[in-house]
UniProtKB/TrEMBL annotation:
UniProt protein name: RNase H type-1 domain-containing protein
Domain of life: Eukaryota
Residue ranges of domain RNase H type-1 in the record: 219-355
Species, as recorded: Rotaria magnacalcarata
InterPro entries per record: RNaseH-like_sf (IPR012337), RNaseH_domain (IPR002156), RNaseH_sf (IPR036397)
Signal peptide (residue range): none
GO molecular function (one): nucleic acid binding
Length: 405
């Protein structure tokens, strides 16, 4: 990036960025054509990776530039969309955006700003950038004059309010799992339930019996704990069910959590229940947690933390502590909605979690925050299209910014 001292107006950087991107568009133009060349899907991928990626790099910083400078980059974006679609120069820019479903640069920069803002929130709290964030987060950022560049935090807060996004405090993410590679905790996670060639596509009244046989054969004398999560547009719930103790517990979670977060939370609560009462288990020191969420079990199975780091770190820590006490905890995937009694009971309990008066305190994961940011960005683009599509012929036949079916 080109930093123009001392005022940092970003003029030199944006001018060079525009020149470089226009040069790259010549390559895109060379592989396109009406009688030969790449199809629209390939051209779009090429543009995203070769041109748009350069426009996006550092955009969270140069977004503070003047509107005139930022407007000059629209020429690059518009020309790229014309090459992708093969439209004439007279085609309205908004029609190009609506046809390709690609975000305007302004909305794209706002999304990248929010993504980076959430990344900062999940850094360790003693990082200087996070300390500065906490200091300025709840200030009034609407009082800046037109001649003053709004700082990054101020822009992020204004965007969050505009998009209706939560900017509350979060817990820092762990960068490494507490489980060392030689702990081999992943060996107790079983993703396969294929006893008699059972598959999800097989519709058979005997699947529940086959799963029950699997549990009895693979986990004899184990205490079974069923876990599940549920999500609707209004609430998120999680539950555990322990048949041998006739215990059913559910929790209402923040509506911003995803279904995967709810499933992981339920698994964590099951392990927490085992840990808090391990000294009182006289009949067995072996437990099996049964979940119908294959994605959650696959996330736990990986020692490299890629997503849902807070929950996975807690689960790994509990598994290590339980192993140190000689308690064996296995995790088994079971098919959903196949008549497995324990799974059906815990599924119903998770769906009834909305009746709880209080919700469990669970920090929003970075993956969930970015999902809501992406969703809010799409809604902003849809609102923009609803306004701009009037008077455009494409707007009469395409009312959504989603890709063509």
């Amino acid at each position: 990036m080109t930093l123009d001292s001392p005022r940092l107006t970003w003029g030199k950087h944006i001018k060079k960025l525009k020149t470089d991107c226009l040069s790259r568009l010549q390559t895109l133009k060379a592989v396109s054509g009406t009688s030969w060349g790449a199809d629209r899907k390939t051209l779009k991928i090429f543009y995203n990776s070769f041109v748009l990626s350069k426009l996006n790099y550092g955009s969270i910083l140069y977004e503070s530039a003047s509107k005139v400078l930022l407007k000059s980059l629209e020429v690059v974006h518009n020309l790229g969309l014309r090459i992708i679609t093969g439209n004439r120069k007279t085609t309205p820019v908004d029609a190009l955006l609506g046809e390709t479903g690609m975000l305007p640069l302004k909305i794209k920069r706002q999304k990248l700003t929010m993504d980076y803002f959430y990344n900062i929130q999940h850094y360790a709290h003693n990082f200087s950038i996070n300390i500065n964030l906490e200091r300025h987060l709840y200030r009034d950022h609407n009082g800046y004059s037109a001649t003053v560049c709004i700082p990054f935090i101020g822009r992020a807060v204004c965007i969050a309010r505009k998009f209706g996004l939560d900017i509350g405090k979060t817990c820092p993410d762990q960068t490494m799992s507490p489980a060392p590679p030689w702990s081999r905790i992943y060996t107790n996670i079983h993703l396969n339930y294929n006893v008699q060639n059972i598959t999800n596509s097989k519709i058979s009244p005997f699947i529940a019996f086959d799963i029950r046989e699997l549990i009895l054969v693979r986990f004899p004398n184990y205490i079974e704990i069923y876990t599940d999560g549920s999500k609707t547009s209004d609430y998120v719930g999680a539950a555990i069910y322990i048949p041998s103790r006739s215990i059913t517990v559910n929790w209402q979670l923040n509506a911003q959590h995803s279904i995967v977060a709810a499933e992981l939370f339920a698994i964590k609560q099951a392990m927490q229940w085992i840990w808090e009462g391990y000294s009182s288990y006289e009949e067995s020191s072996q437990f099996v947690i049964l979940s119908d969420s294959l994605s959650s079990l696959m996330i736990i199975q990986k020692l490299s933390l890629t997503t849902y780091r807070q929950l996975v770190t807690t689960i790994h820590s509990l598994m290590l502590k339980l192993n140190s006490k000689g308690i064996i905890v296995a995790l088994q995937h079971v098919p959903a909605h196949c008549g497995v009694r324990g799974n059906e009971i815990v599924d119903a309990a998770a769906k009834m979690a909305y009746r709880n008066d209080k919700s469990a305190l669970l920090p929003i994961e970075l993956a969930d925050q970015k999902f809501h940011s992406k969703q809010a960005t799409r809604e902003q683009f849809q609102e923009y299209w609803e306004i701009q599509r009037h008077g455009i012929y494409l707007g009469t036949i395409k009312d959504s910014v989603d890709n063509w079916p």
